């Protein structure tokens, strides 16, 4: 009986993925290359991509490219969607690969084969009453735009993105009602390459270039929001923020103000612009201190003001504990998002600190600042899984992680937060973004594929599959 559940009726339970991490078929259907297609496998992949001599070419002699085949969702989507339906998914978050629609990014006319592929996927989802939640850009910038235009360094990219979004909004207007513009837009503050398509080559230019690119992305995002409201009046379109709440290491006011300022910059700056349609007051001082001067042309700020989002999508994996002065050793023990070790938290095998209460904190912080619906569109545990002799996969550690995070969301709902849904990351095993590994698994569904590329690609249900089915069935009551 839904009336008695914590989670509202119609809560959007499901799972989340990105095209480049699941589809494969990297050169099929006239698809063009994107930034993820030149990402080698292995833990050094992002450093290789960001190194100054990197030429954005595929080099099969020296590297493997796990995203090229990924888990072959391109050919197996029917089987996968049937499994999502069996778990009772209400929604499935996926991204559209920009280069399936515009292989180079700067063409005028779209590629029909790419458009037809997503029609088939959306139709399949809808046949099970699963609503697609579409990320327009998830670390998949066309490689041609990276090489020829310097990625989001260039104002010209706004019009290419606008063309792309108009095409997909019109094409899928009857099939897709939930949209998001840029995945983890603020993540570029740590590493711009995947979402912005460039790496500043010297520290002095870093902020200037990153914030200029943000400005162009804000315009592009707002144009997409405006187009979405025109083309699909009953749709909801959101932003997507990588949210990692920042805790002060201790009660020393110097550390408290440091943590607060870091949080403003990392967690709230992009969200403020997306939600309020204007640059926040606090950023002026930062721009002055870092000598940032933006190319803001007539009309830019009006577009940003008019294209504010309907909801805030967020990814949540970890919190960050920080202090003003830290030694190299302390820094090395921090999370992937920075900071130092939090003595109260345990970490995953990849060093990501596990903090369910941090999710409740994040949702409270976001809701009290914006009073806009929130949608947790990524959360999950990357872990090694083992297949037992009887074929079962007992991923109780994953169930524990997810249970605690769902409980934390339930608390946040009771705190008064308006929460639309939850799509756990990598609901089917996929290629890890940061390491290119298959062995960093997130799924309810196991995919027989190994780090060296071997494996049958066969799908198997893990214990968590059965657990999540019950969670959805009971609207979050049976955990
Ligand atoms: C998010 C990204 O940062 O984290 C995903 O949006 C990514 O693309 C996910 O896969 C988990 O990170 P990783 O490195 O474990 O794949």
From TrEMBL:
**Pfam families, A to Z:** Glyco_hydro_1 (PF00232)
Q: Could you give a single Gene Ontology term from the biological process aspect?
A: carbohydrate catabolic process
Q: Which InterPro entries match?
A: GH, GH_1_N_CS, Glyco_hydro_1, Glyco_hydro_1_AS
Gene Ontology molecular-function annotations: beta-glucosidase activity
PROSITE patterns per record: GLYCOSYL_HYDROL_F1_1, GLYCOSYL_HYDROL_F1_2
Catalytic site residues? 378
* Keyword tags: Glycosidase, Hydrolase
Superkingdom of the source?
Bacteria
Kindly state one GO CC term assigned in the UniProt record.
cytosol
Family per UniProt?
Belongs to the glycosyl hydrolase 1 family.
Protein name per UniProt: Glycoside hydrolase family 1 protein
Q: Organism source for this protein?
A: Halalkalibacter alkaliphilus
Where is the organism placed in the taxonomic lineage, from the top? Answer: Bacteria, Bacillati, Bacillota, Bacilli, Bacillales
């Amino acid at each position: 009986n839904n009336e008695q559940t914590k989670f509202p009726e119609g809560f959007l339970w499901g799972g989340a993925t990105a095209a480049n991490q699941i589809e494969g078929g990297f050169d099929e259907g006239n698809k063009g290359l994107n930034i993820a297609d030149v990402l080698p496998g292995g833990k050094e992949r992002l450093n290789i991509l960001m190194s100054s001599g990197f030429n954005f070419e595929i080099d099969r002699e020296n590297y493997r490219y796990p995203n090229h085949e990924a888990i072959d969702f391109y050919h197996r989507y029917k089987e996968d969607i049937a499994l999502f339906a069996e778990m009772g998914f209400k929604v499935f978050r996926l991204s559209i690969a920009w280069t399936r629609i515009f292989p180079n990014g700067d063409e005028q006319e779209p590629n029909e084969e790419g458009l037809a592929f997503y029609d088939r996927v959306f139709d399949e989802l809808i046949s099970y009453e699963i609503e697609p939640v579409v990320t327009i850009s998830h670390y998949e910038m066309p490689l041609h735009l990276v090489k020829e235009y310097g990625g989001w360094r260039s104002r010209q990219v706004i019009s290419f993105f606008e063309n792309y979004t108009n095409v997909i909004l019109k094409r899928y207007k009857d099939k897709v009602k939930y949209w998001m513009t840029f995945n983890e837009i603020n993540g570029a503050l740590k590493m711009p390459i995947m979402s912005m398509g460039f790496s500043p080559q010297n520290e002095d230019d870093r902020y200037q270039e990153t914030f200029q690119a943000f400005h162009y992305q804000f315009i592009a995002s707002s144009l997409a929001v405006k187009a979405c409201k025109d083309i699909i009046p009953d749709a909801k379109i959101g932003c997507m923020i990588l949210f990692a709440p920042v805790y002060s290491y201790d009660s020393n006011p110097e550390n408290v103000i440091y943590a607060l300022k870091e949080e403003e910059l990392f967690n709230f700056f992009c969200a403020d612009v997306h939600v309020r349609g204007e640059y926040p007051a606090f950023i002026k001082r930062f721009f002055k201190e870092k000598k940032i001067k933006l190319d803001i042309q007539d009309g830019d700020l009006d577009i940003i003001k008019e294209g504010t989002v309907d909801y805030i999508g967020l990814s949540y994996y970890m919190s960050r504990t920080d202090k003003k002065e830290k030694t190299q050793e302390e820094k090395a023990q921090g999370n992937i998002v920075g900071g130092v070790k939090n003595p109260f938290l345990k970490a995953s095998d990849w060093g990501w600190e596990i903090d369910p209460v941090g999710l409740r904190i994040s949702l409270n912080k976001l809701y009290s600042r914006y009073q806009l619906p929130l949608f947790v569109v990524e959360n999950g545990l990357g872990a090694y899984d083992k297949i037992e002799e009887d074929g079962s996969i007992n991923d109780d550690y994953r169930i524990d992680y997810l249970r605690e995070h769902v409980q934390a969301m339930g608390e946040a709902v009771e705190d008064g937060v308006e929460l639309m849904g939850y799509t756990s990351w990598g609901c089917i095993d996929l290629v890890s973004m940061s390491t290119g590994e298959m062995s960093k698994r997130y799924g309810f569904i196991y995919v027989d594929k190994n780090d060296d590329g071997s494996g049958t690609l066969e799908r198997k249900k893990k214990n968590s599959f059965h657990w999540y089915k019950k969670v959805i069935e009971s609207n979050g009551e049976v955990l």
